[in-house]
Amino acid sequence: MSKFETEGIVLKQFDLGEADKIITFYTKDNGKVRAVARGVKKPRSKISGLVQLFTYNKITFYKGRSLERINHIENIYPFSSLRNNLNKMAYASYIAEYVEKVGMENNPNPDIFNLLLEAFYNLMKNDNNKLEKINLIFVLRLLKYIGFEPVIDKCIKCNNKIEPAYNNIFDIKQGGLLCEKCFDNSKENIFILNGETLAVMRKFILEGFSASKSLSISNKSKKNLIKFIDYFIIYHLDFKLKSTEFLNMIRDLG
Predict the structure, then answer these.
(1) What is the reported pLDDT for 84?
(2) For the packed helices 110-125 and 131-145, what is the interaxial angle rounded to 10 degrees?
(3) Do 148 and 218 sit in the same domain of this protein?
(4) Do the Cβ atoms of 138 and 131 come closer than 8 Å?
């Protein structure tokens, strides 16, 4: 039985029989990996704490026909605060589910792995009032890494540069901005981005998580951006995350 070793972050787990679990990792060298953790539900299991959600580990897998099997696992970082803080858990769950949905088995993407790790570190070390910005940065940069980056610097028809205006026309279907000359009023799937939202999106995509420290965003523009992202994802990726409901509840609590 062949085996391989890599680093991985736990995205998901569910029960398999009375004693085992299937753990979904996003790994550095193999992309998404689903593996059986034998006996992990037993009271004396030595690895139950190592396969909790969001843990970052070094793992040795045995290759199987359909699922891998965990041979050895040791913790690199527990990210326990992401499980112990309700707000952070909501955002970490959303991010983990997002990667679980778009990640592909046996298809590593170092950019996604590093983005996930960086997102968890930023959620961990920042106060609750910065979590939404971290989440928005994660989603926008992930869209870039999976080939769905929205075009927000020029018109997708005439290629003329567009500066943020009071209202900015975004064609969801075509995935980019339209200038006033190229906009057809009969078009469907149009979303209006306000000027602050557009400027913030550009900063988030360009600067990454460092922008969460220096860049402020009004509640109005934050809601505008959240609504845009939800619309864009449903249209282009055709899924809605289960964790969105939990996250929205946390958002409503303030």
Answers:
(1) 96
(2) 180
(3) yes
(4) no
Residue 1 pLDDT? 60
Count other C-beta atoms under 10 Å from residue 32's C-beta. Answer: 23
**Both tokens assigned to 187:** 């078009």
Low-confidence stretches of the chain (pLDDT < 70) are: 1, 254
pLDDT tens sequence across 202-215: 999 999 999 998 88
Could you please report the per-residue DSSP string of 46-90? SSGGGGSTT-EEEEEEE--SSSEEEEEEEEEE--THHHHSHHHHH
- Strand segments, DSSP code E, in 64-203 are 68-77, 151-155, 167-171, 176-178, 190-194
Other C-beta atoms closer than 10 Å to the C-beta of 245 total: 10
Burial of 2 (0-12, 13-18, 19+ CB in 10 A): exposed
Q: Which residues pair with 192 in a beta bridge?
A: 169
Token pair belonging to 19 = 């004693």
Q: Are residues 24 and 147 in the same domain?
A: no
The answer to whether residues 105 and 74 belong to one domain is: no
Q: Based on the domain organization, do 181 and 119 belong to the same domain?
A: yes
Tell me the residue range of the domain where 53 lies: 3-78
93 and 186 share a domain?
yes
What confidence score (pLDDT) does residue 90 get?
A: 97
Number of domains the chain is built from? 2
